[in-house]
Amino acid sequence: MPTPPISDEIAIEAYRAWKEYGNNIEAGKALGVSDVTISRRRREAIARGLHLSEGVRGEIASANLNIGEARGGWKHVYDGEGKKTGTVRWTAPEADPEDIADKIRGALEGLPRSKPIPAPEHVNADLLTLYPIADAHIGMRAWGQEVGEDYDTDIACRRLRTWVAQCVASSPPSDTAVILDVGDLTHADDQMNATPRSKHVLDVDTRYFKTIDMTIAALATAIEAAATKHKRVIVRILPGNHNPHSYVAIVMALAERYRDDSRISVDKIPGEFFAKQFGKVMIAAHHGDKAKADRLVLFLADQYPDMWGSTRHRFLWTGHLHHHKSQDIGGVTWEQLRAVTDRDAYATSHAYSARSQLQAITYHREHGEVSRVKTSAWAA
After folding, report:
1. Contact 135, 356 (CB under 8 A)
2. What gap in Å lies between CA 286 and CA 182, rounded to an integer?
3. Domain ranges of the chain
4. Which residues, in sequence order, are CB contacts of 5 under 8 Å at separation 6+?
5. What SUPFAM superfamilies does the record point to (predicted)?
6. CA distance 37 to 297
7. What is the CA radius of gyration of the chain?
8. How many CA atoms lie within 13 A of 282 on its CB side?
9. How many other CB atoms sit within 10 Å of the CB of residue 92?
10. In whole angstroms, how far apart are CA 128 and each of 102, 261, 262, 317?
11. What pLDDT was estimated at residue 69?
12. Which helix (H) or strand (E) holds 293?
């Protein structure tokens, strides 16, 4: 029996609840339905234009357009006597990250879930291990004769799988693992093969679709390697200046893959900051492209005052510039990570020199950092 159509009243109710509560989960709790139901009803409200003002909807109808076709227009304003007093420009709002995420989630529904991974028998509940991944730039092409080392999609994905597995093998059996990508996981954001903001032309290795597909597979292998060592695995992927939009597809694909796995959780948060408390430890991250470390530290203190006040060991991780740097800033240890990628032609021509690396850092809930494991191509 087909599902009955959603009424305008129910659709706009879901949209208004989402606006009030800020996300599908909380809106669903308020209305007594699932977050998936809220997402579907909200999309329907937007598709029908129910979220627009009566004035805008009336003008669209008078122009014989439908909601999907109307991207903006001029609204003429008249006084009570019919005299024109001005004009107002209306522009259809751009799709926000959650709208994009909803569309991707819908496309991924029905995909096969991951097979259960046996949980480790013995873990230390007082430990958490962080696996920060910085600037993998999967999809980048570098020619060894030009820059010193070859780098392409196959190398990048093999490096990600192998290096995470090596770090997992050498790290203690902590109860929780956090696999944290701090941005620029992929080199290009779309098939234009240019940086989204500056439009710098990029050296790419293969087709964009293939890059995303291989990236998801490589990350899944890394996640499942961690799940063999740690009882709980948290995955968080942040956007970078190279992938401010495409990271959403990877997040949603992984979230669907592990949707039924109680030990693996994928954060579906459309923000650029990560912050987590583990006992007296605060772990935070940002790609590092939009603010310097000292400003990020002040932001953390302002945005997470309760977490800040209840922790003694605070750590901020960034990437972006591909070389290592560390500094104590106002009660926070800031560390800029080395990149997973090697140099491309642009970096080489500008005399940038940095070594690729991946590491795992283990924290004790009371004492802070207690161990660290590093791996890299040049250390092998």
Report:
1. no
2. 6
3. 8-98, 100-375
4. none
5. Metallo-dependent phosphatases (SSF56300)
6. 38
7. 24
8. 24
9. 16
10. 31, 19, 18, 16
11. 47
12. helix 293-303
Residue 188: name the closest of 249, 268, 132 by CA: 249
Other residues' Cβ atoms within 10 Å of the Cβ of residue 87: 10
* Assigned CATH for 100-375: 3.60.21.10
Q: Do 131 and 180 touch, CB atoms closer than 8 A?
A: yes
Once rounded to an integer, what is the mean pLDDT over residues 39-58?
76
Please report, in angstroms and rounded to a whole number, the separation of the first and last CA atoms in the chain. 61
Quickly list H helices, 117-205.
Answer: 144-147, 153-170
Average pLDDT in the chain = 87
Measured CA to CA, the distance from residue 37 to residue 213 in angstroms comes to 28
**β-strand partners of 324:** none
pLDDT given for residue 1 in this prediction: 44
CA distance 263 to 233: 6
DSSP assignment of 6-61 equals PPHHHHHHHHHHHHHHSSHHHHHHHHTS-HHHHHHHHHHHHHHTTTS-HHHHHHHH
Angle CA 55–91–101, to nearest 5: 110
Q: Which residues contact 210 (CB under 8 A, 6 or more apart)?
A: 153
pLDDT the model gives residue 250: 95
